[in-house]
Amino acid sequence: MAGTAMIVQPPPLEYAIPRATGNGKTAFAVLASPEVQAFLAQPLAKAIQKIAHVPGMGSPALRAPNARVEDFSDPNLPALAEGMVRAIEELHGIGLTACQVGINVAVFAVDLGACVEIGRRRGGDSVCKKLTLDGRSLLRGASPGVALFFNPTMRCGGREVRAEEGCLSIPSPTDPGKSLEVKLWRPSDATLSYQDLAGAWHVLDADGWPARCLQHEYDHVQGRLITDRDPRWRDRIFPLPGEGELASSEPDRR
Ligand SMILES: [Zn+2]
Predict the structure, then answer these.
(1) How many domains, in total, are found in the chain?
(2) Which of 37-46, 168-177, 201-210 has the highest average model confidence (pLDDT)?
(3) 219 neighbors 187 (Cβ within 8 angstroms)
């Protein structure tokens, strides 16, 4: 998900983005593939700038199935995790899913601290009043920072709330230096079950802007983009190949 900072113009196309690496492979096979290995050796943030500005988008990885991580001793996972966290920080983004950098593994990263701060600035429904990890509130004490969510499943509930959101993978058609902003209705509350980098299971409960950001990244894991949720853009920007070809459906309602 795009942060509040403007995305800078992309450098010349000097970085190789892996083609869609999903399509039935295990996460281990995806990460061990030569394209992904070469990709992980590059500066990730610069590569994302390229992917974020391909006219009309264009990475098939955004629509390909994302493999669940079954083996948390996979030696490639720490490099992927570190790269995603670094990329978010360098791009001033607040969320990033692996498929956005051409890696079809079911994992995303979210800067929860930045989400809370953005919600506070936006006010209204965006203000976060609930952010608990395994029942403990993350709203007291130090900022929770960037967290990684492997093999996520989500339930959503509460009220329907509307807000404008942008995506690092979708440039504005009129100003390619910025993300397209789309006004979307989403449920106010999200409960995410996921595994951490060590494979341990957790439950994160959120409302406000963090809940919206988690739903945005969870959509990416399902092969879904913000434009799919807006009739004005659905058929104009990187249209879905067909509902049946998506990895899964929308988040479950509670
Ligand atoms: Zn996005």
Answers:
(1) 1
(2) 201-210
(3) no
> Ligand 1 centroid vs 225 CA: distance in angstroms?
7
**Residue 69 belongs to domain spanning:** 27-253
For residue 85, the CA-to-ligand 1 centroid distance in Å is: 15
Per-residue model confidence as pLDDT tens digits over 56-85? 355 778 888 899 999 999 999 988 898 888
| Structure-token pair, residue 202 | 């957790």
Does 208 map to a domain? yes
Tell me which amino acid residue 216 is.
H
Structural domain contains residue 227: yes
224: domain CATH number is 3.90.45.10
- Token look-up 């990244």 returns 217
Alpha carbon of 213 to ligand 1 centroid (Å): 9
Q: Is residue 16 part of a domain?
A: no
Residue 9 lies in a domain: no
User: What's the pTM?
Assistant: 0.83
pLDDT band for position 19 (50/70/90)? low
- Beta strand segments in 14-121, E: 95-97, 107-111
